[in-house]
Design brief:
mainly beta, 13% helix, Double-stranded beta-helix, 6-stranded antiparallel β-sheet, 229 residues
Length: 229
Amino acid sequence: MQYRVTGEFQPAVEMLLEAGETVYTQSGAMAWRSPDIEMQTNTHGGFLKGLARMFGGESMFMASFTAHRDGAEIGFAATAPGEILPVDIGQTNSGLIIQKGAFLCAQEGVTLDTVFTKKFSSGMFGGEGFILQQLGGGGVVFLEVDGNLIDKTLAPGEALLVDTGNVVAFEPSVAYDVETVKGGMNIFFGGEGLFLTRLTGPGRVILQTQNFAEFCGRIRQYIPTQSSS
């Protein structure tokens, strides 16, 4: 597979596939394709895996695209302004754990499984749901980054407090937990929410500068509502 990421404000990834090569994505993420690329919709891994994805806030069904000739073209566009990050999963340290909404598309050899946060409190109060997703296998995956990409490597024992909506992905070696903001004034008047995600190294952490849920919340307050007569 050959690919290039194009566009600055609202990026897309363009791929040239060889005959028989397959890529897959969440339902609805494909932007354009050659006529000689066949689409099949399935649960990608079976009904239980599809059901687990649905409970994690993602689509139960995935769309697979298989080329029938060399050089067939397909494009996947980001759903929000930001960046698209290619990651060769075979070159990572045991894959990546990603937040919902971060997965755009991947080669067929990349596995996408659901994982549970280590502590129930992390899932209940972290703001991103109890289920995360883990990427493994081999091949290239493309992640959506809202806003700009921040890529950090944490040393053993090094911790970072992050607004949960700004987390994109982290290596499985990174410990993940959620803690409350300390201090009554900070909680009620700080404007930063009640909970923060604590990431503790060692390992790679991928962050994004845009918290899309917070952005939507700010826009929502300016949308006029129909008053009852």
